[in-house]
Amino acid sequence: MGATVEVEGLTKSFGSQNIWRDVTLTLPPGEITALLGPSGTGKSVFLKTVMGLLNPEEGSVKIDGVDIVSATDRETQELRKRFGVLFQDGALFGSMSIYDNVAFPLHEHTDLSASEIKRKVGEKLELVGLTGTETKLPGEVSGGMRKRVGLARSLVLDPDIILCDEPDSGLDPVRTAYIAQLLVDVNTETDATILVVTHDTNLARTLPDNLGMLFRRELVMFGPREAMLTTDEPAVTQFIHGSPVGPIGMSEEKDATPHHLLGAMDHLKLGDVPPQIQPSEGMGERAGAVRHAERLRTTPDIEELVIRQPDKELERRPVTRPAAYSAPMRGLRQVGSLFALALDVIVNIFRRPFQWRETLEQFWFIASVSILPAALVAVPFGAVIALQLGTLTVQIGAQSFTGAASVLAVIQQASPIVTALAIAGAGGAAICADLGARTIREEIDAMKVLGVSPVQRLVVPRVLATMLVAVLLNGMVSVVGVIGGYVFNVLVQDGTPGAYLASFTALAQIEDLIVGEIKAVIFGFIAGVVAAYRGLNPSAGPKGVGDAVNQSVVITFLLLFFMNFVITTLYLQVIPAKGA
Ligand SMILES: Nc1ncnc2c1ncn2[C@@H]1O[C@H](COP(=O)(O)OP(=O)(O)OP(=O)(O)O)[C@@H](O)[C@H]1O
C-alpha cells in the first residue's frame, strides 16, 4: 500500500508575503490527487514544503507518521529516497546527457550493474517516448522533452510517493494524455501515492481520485473528485470551467469574495463526473482507485470526506509570519550562514566518495578563466613596482638594492593581491554564475531530493579547485612579476642586469614565498566559499543570479584585502625581516 502523507496546519510565508496558511489535508495512500489553483497561489511552494525543501513557519507533513518538517538530516535523507519528483521545468542536470540524468538516482542509491542500469534507463525512456535521445544534452532537446526526461528520472527508483509539478506544461494534448495514462499505469503497478499540480482542467477532471484547490492563501476545498466536480464552491467551479466569471481575478488584488458576484456565476454548473482514466489493457484495476471507491461506498455522506474553509472564518484568522529581522540582524544571519557553509565544506572534504573528476574539471575550468587575466595584470604590476622602487632607490642612493626591493614587493604583496583579484573576479564570478544558474533551474533542489549533498558534490570540488589554482597563480604571478620588473628596470630605467640579479636574494627569503602561498590557499578557500554561498542563495530569476555574482565579487574583494592585511601584519610581527 502506498505511503500516507498527512499535512496539518501548514503555513508558509516569504518575508512579509504569506503564501498560504493553515493547510490541512491527507493524501490517501495509493491514490492520485491533483492540486489546482490560479497561478502564483503557491502550488509549487506547497510541493517543495511537502518534500522538505522549504521550511514552513507552522504545521507538519507526516510521511507514514514521520514529520519531514522536524526530521533530522538523516531522517530527511531517508524520507527523500521514497520520493520521485518531477520539477516544473524538469530540473535536469545540464552538464549530463539524458541517459546520465535518468541513470543518476540508480548510480547514487543502488548497486545495480552497468547492464542492469542500462536496461532500467532504457525502459523508463521508452515509457516517456524518448528512446534514441540518450546521448543528447538537456539543452539539445525541447522543453516538453526535458519534462518527459524529468518524469523518467523521477520514476526510475520506483518511488512510493510521486510529486509532479505541472506534468502537462509545455506538452501538446496528445503527449499530455500519454503522460496521464503513464501516471495511472505507474500507480497501478507500484501503488504509489501521487500528487499532481496542474492547470489542465481536462486532466483535473479525469486523472485524480481527489482534488484540492488553493486560492486566496487558503486550501479552499479538498476532497474526492466526485464531490469536487459537482460542487457549487465558486472558485472551484470557475477554475474547472476556465471562466473569467467568478471570484478568481486576473491578479490577487482583483480576486473577489463570492458574495460580491451577485449571481453572475449562475450559468456555471459543474455537470456529471466524467469517466476516470483507467489503467492500460491487461493491467487490472488500480488498488488506490479500489480503496477510493470503497471509502465513498462506506461513507454515508460524501461531504464528510470534504475539507472546506468557510470564507468569513478565514479572514478573521491571524497569519503567522516569520520574524522580521532588522538590516543588521539580516547581515549577521548571512555571516552566520556563510560560516556554516564554510564549516560544511571542511567537513565534506573528508566525506567519501571524493569527487575527483568534478574537482579536476573545475580546476581546469577555473585555471582557464583566471590564468590569462592574472598574467596580463602581473606584467604591468611588476613594471610599476620596478618603476617606483627604481626611482626610490636612486633617490636614497641604494640602486644596488633595486632588484632585491622589487622581488620582495612582488612576492610579499603584489602576487597575493593579483591572485586575489583574479581568483575573486574571474574564478569566483564563474563559480557563482554556474551555481546560481543551477539553483534557479532547480538542479540544486533536484539534487537534494535525490539524496545527494550539493555541498559535497558541487561546492567542495569548486573550493578545492579554487585553492589549488590560487597557489599556482601566486607562483606564476611572482615569476611573471619579477621578470616584468627585471625587463623594465634593465630596459627602461637603465639598470644593469648584473646589479639587479646580484641583489636578488638580498632582502627576500624563502618564508616570504611560503607566506605568499599560504595567503593564496586562504584566498582560494574564501573566494570559493563566498562564490558558492551567493550562487546557492540568489534572489529569483536571472537578474538574481547577476546580482549574486556582483555581490560575490565585491564581498570576496573586501574579505581578501582584509585577510591580506591581517596575514601580512602577523607575518611581519612573527618572522623578522632578512638582515634585521
Ligand atoms: N524562494 C522564494 N522566495 C520568495 N518568494 C517565493 C519563492 N518561491 C516562490 N515564491 C513566491 O511564492 C508565490 C507562489 O509561487 P509558486 O511558484 O508556488 O506558485 P504556483 O501556484 O506554483 O504558480 P504557477 O501555477 O504559476 O506555477 C509567488 O508569489 C512566488 O513569487
TrEMBL record:
Provide a GO CC annotation, any one. ATP-binding cassette (ABC) transporter complex
Membrane-spanning residues: 331-351, 363-387, 463-492, 513-533, 553-572
Q: Which GO terms describe its molecular function?
A: ATP binding; ATP hydrolysis activity
Q: What is the lineage of its organism?
A: Bacteria, Bacillati, Actinomycetota, Actinomycetes, Propionibacteriales
The protein here is known as ATP-binding cassette domain-containing protein
A single Pfam family it belongs to is ABC_tran
Q: Which residues form the ABC transporter domain?
A: 5-241
Check the record and name the InterPro entries matching this protein.
AAA+_ATPase, ABC_transporter-like_ATP-bd, ABC_transporter-like_CS, P-loop_NTPase, Permease_MalE
Q: Which PANTHER family match?
A: INTERMEMBRANE PHOSPHOLIPID TRANSPORT SYSTEM ATP-BINDING PROTEIN MLAF (PTHR43023:SF6), PROTEIN TRIGALACTOSYLDIACYLGLYCEROL 3, CHLOROPLASTIC (PTHR43023)
Q: Which SMART domains match?
A: AAA
Q: Tell me where the signal peptide lies.
A: none
Keywords, in A-Z order: ATP-binding, Membrane, Nucleotide-binding, Transmembrane, Transmembrane helix, Transport
Per its UniProt record, what SUPFAM superfamilies does this chain match? P-loop containing nucleoside triphosphate hydrolases
